[in-house]
Amino acid sequence: MSHAATNQAATFESLCQTFRDAAKLSTTADTLEWDERTGMPRGGAEYRAEQVAYLRGLVHDMQTSPRVGEQLQTLQDWDAAKDPHSDIGATLKWLASDYHRQCKLPSELVQRTASCSVRGQGVWDAARKADDYKLFQPVLNEMLALKRETGERLQTESQTVYEALLDEFEPGAKAAALTKTFADLRADLVELIREISDSPRQVDTSLITQTFDKASQQKFSHLIAEAIGFDFERGRLDETSHPFCTTLGPSDCRILTRYESNFLPTSIFGTLHEAGHGLYEQGMREDWFGLPPGSYASLGIHESQSRLWENLVGRTLAFWEHFTPTLKEHFPTTLGDATVEQLHRCFNAVQPSLIRVEADEATYNLHIIVRFELEQALIGGDLSTDDLPVAWSDAYEEVIGVRPPSAADGVLQDVHWSAGLIGYFPTYTLGNLAAAQLYDAAKDELGDLDTMVRRGEFSPLHQWLKKHVHQQGRTRTADELITEATGQPLSAAPLIRSLRNRYGQVYDLND
Fold first, then answer.
1. Which residues form a coiled coil (predicted)?
2. CATH numbers and ranges of domains, the chain
């Protein structure tokens, strides 16, 4: 190795160490936020916001220091980085991109946003429990102003303010392209939902709306997460008001679900969803933690992993052929006489509903379309927070066919806006599309996945995803990853085909 190459290798290692150290601070802030969402006394909110804001500011300062810029400049022509898909090449490509993006944001804006996020989530939780939108509105206004300023600072000539925020979660995504994708998908879904509604074979869901013991739900949730591959030596499952997944270190992944006493699917599918996120986090390469090869490709790809396990696996007849005996053991009084077919039908019932996280697979993306359109209007200034509750209710009535009776079941049902996650919602639908396509590709390579699932053999699918998605990290864009893993660019066709197949079984739909 030449002297110049040796120096470049040393510079690269120094650069990586900076980001590894930044990850230590960032995950410390994540730990404080996890604690805030699980057990922190409400009185600690103000100081917790200061703690998190301070740490986020330190991380921002480390990642945007002049020294980082100088090192990136020094390494831009390094031969070892010529391949943008190699670990070194991808690291320099994405660190440079992130560096130039983050340098547009002053540290005080980053800290104010972090503080508002912590305070906002606490206020949102209290407002939802009290069914009081007015309690939440001031902090929502504060967050929208912060995110609007962030977007204005980040946007390029080819971006809207909203697209600049969307870019944080789905790099390169365009609102117009998403709007068209969603419109096309909506047309297919509306037709499918109409066929289901017209079917004479409707589903009685009373079986899963009885009273279910919370302790038994907790045990069953732990069991199914472990069964699909979530490693409880490197993670844990807890309870919160809005399920999420967070990673506090390369071997410390926290998933959270919630339990409804009168609606069993909430805990089951919430757990599978978050465990899917957790499998992605646990499947990444630990030696690159804090750097692009040890990070996720995009939030859409991340959501593909959660939605795949939740729906493409968890709602299949094969899954319940395996787990029905165990489920009945956990709930002998309420489900002792239930059959596999009854449970499968109940868990795939299609009915327009109010709550996104409890929505069936056919109507779920309609919930996302509502949020996508509303948050664009909020950021663009076309919709005020004064008018938001009515706009939300009107949109639900028009798009989904139900009108929320309260703010708690309407505009207050999601935590995302309080946390500053504006631009996140579209990734759920992108994740649904990718999940179906990845599942088909895995099936083509592995063979009869239904038989494997029926036997409780989840490792082959888990390992396939680990190879083609998890361990790829951020060495590919989302589009590149999907194309390489499946042989095709992202398409809605696999999702529609999957839905028609599943609901054809449940509702006896005509081909």
1. none
2. 3-154 (no CATH), 175-507 (1.10.1370.30)
Tokens of 132: 């009081």
Q: What is the SS3 assignment for 289-324? A: CCCHHHCCCCHHHHHHHHHHHHHHHCCCHHHHHHHH
Report angle CA 322, 328, 330 to the nearest 5 degrees: 110
Q: Which amino acid is at 126?
A: A
Catalytic residues: 274
Q: Which two tokens stand for residue 458?
A: 């989840």
pTM of the model: 0.95
CB atoms within 10 A of CB 3: 7
Report the distance separating Cα 240 and Cα 131, nearest Å. Answer: 18
Identify the CA nearest to 127 among candidates 411, 416, 394.
411
Residue 185, both tokens: 């998908």
**459-489 confidence digits (pLDDT tens):** 999 999 999 999 999 999 999 999 999 999 9
Contact 375, 365 (CB under 8 A): no
Q: Which of 263, 294, 318 lies closest to 439, judged by CA? A: 318
